[in-house]
């Protein structure tokens, strides 16, 4: 729909005159109604003339489903001599066909002549037959009707009668009556807001309802009532007032304000109607207009829909879109979130999950969408049949005046796209807009008989608001002794340029070990800036640090976004539990038991941030789950490669999973761990695992478990170099361990969580203790020679550093703790001595925080598997 355009003179039409028109691409014009003319009765529209259904006041030279565009061509023109003749033309316009796209070509025009008040429809070349998407829809209409839709003439409807079919050379002349029977018709043309468009109010706001009426008849009408009424979502009247109209002449327009005002008390969807009650009115359909009047809070949601989807729309081609126009009830506001309800999987078919989303300013031509204030492309993340919420970030979008638009733009061609849902229940907001990507033009949606289910969340932004947006560094995991440059991102979420300080503190063991502040100068509204602090060196493996970052702005209006916290762990420890099992069955149990046994470690469900730190862990426990809830360690993946590299370089690896040993490598592209674990062959086990028993002469001797966890065909394996340690009820091997001389592995074809503790040695705790002993000693029992054990500090009185030289009988885990004279832990060392039996530890007189300790006497405790030693050191500054 385009317009209004000037006719150039007052044209007599029925019993009134008109001087402008709206152009409809579907082969019609209206002298007063900016609603698009449609030809689809199956979608709630009608082509039969006359009809009170909008649009009214129309001339239809050839009503059909036309489409203008670069692919199909088509042009439209209008001309006037500004005296007595005006011509509106459609030139070579194709029709839209659901099966074949652009089709046919049609040329026709309207000629208006003031001298005789005649209307002529004239037809040029015609090719193609209108289908309008479905064969049972009426396809064409030719005729005219008046402003009420109650009076008119129909020349053709649904291509009938055949003798009236449009063809090249045809001309149809209409001579509307300018005199005749008296007509009483007072119409409401506007109420509550310009264009009958929805307006947002706040509770406590004052609205003075009004309406604009016009006498469309040919009689003076007097002494009737004009009303304004407000109802809530249950149709309960919350406001009603009226004014007596003494008289209104034919063609006259009158604006009427109600004597009283409405002050909403609560938020909700309200509808304001303006209507007239005129005795003998011949067109009651135009006696009332209903305007949506939502009442919201701030913070709150701007929304026109009732939450119920009646229909959905998708364009044929990508690049086209939809938008809702929102005018906030207060300024300034910050848009923090936008929402889109996407239609379900049934339409389109197969559909898609990609969408472009925008927030736009109203700085386009005549207040149309203009500058993109926020944009994002959702690739593969759109959820069909649900609300999709997009967070605009901490700064959001600031609206200081006017309106803004929230838009969705189709990313892919139909039918490989999602559809935007719409609410078709009254009242309508008349704030829906459409976008034509080929021209970049926005326009109010032609029908305005629905509301796009597109919403916006708003809040009042603070005037002064420094924001701590994120802590970028250090990350969750850091390496011991690494040089870290702490970094944060700060932002200005307020309305004015600000200068402030950014602080970063690092705490360990209840004490602050790092405290830095940097100035941030002249940060503009909505701006962000990365701040790099001086370097920091974390302490030993397993240490945990608390990071506190904050901003300090004098007069900050919003303290809720000033501070963020993070936790950083120094990689390393006795164990790492990686739990990619979707059900997370065994991982938390293994972590809990190992911690209870006195080991220090780390549990994670994500391995990627630890790839560079795996060798800092003495042992790794991996839980892959049981079919169908399993994780496949794919051959060639970063996960598998990092695990293999860790193991082959002296690691201790526990790996459990029902399909890890046969199904995954043989059928699902999984990495083949069998050679690394010293086993071979194998296959599917029984459909249900019920019993797990140990083997004599192994670390599982005497163990027998019932099994009640997940189990579906848990794989079995055959021995190669490994020691076979566990069997199922069918005497298939499902547990094994292997000491290659360079590394040690333990594999299990089920889940430790499924083992039922049966008393004695048959407990999960005992099994894990035996596995850790195997990992620590490399043997099943401790046969070391005490004469091969020695510990020596030199010097034991020192001022710079002291060196601990030790010898142990076999490769093992070593811990050295240093305490002050009060017994407080000052420094700890954990060594995983996997490659040699003679080593050194150097203490530089610093504590776990990296700070120099005071002069005095310090006690040390050295411990490894089966051996321990303690003594004292003296530090002299």
TrEMBL record:
FlgD/Vpr Ig-like domain residues: 808-860
Xref: InterPro entries: FlgD/Vpr_Ig-like, Ig-like_fold, Secre_tail
Pfam families given in the database record: FlgD_ig
Highest taxon listed in the record's lineage: Bacteria
Protein name (record): FlgD/Vpr Ig-like domain-containing protein
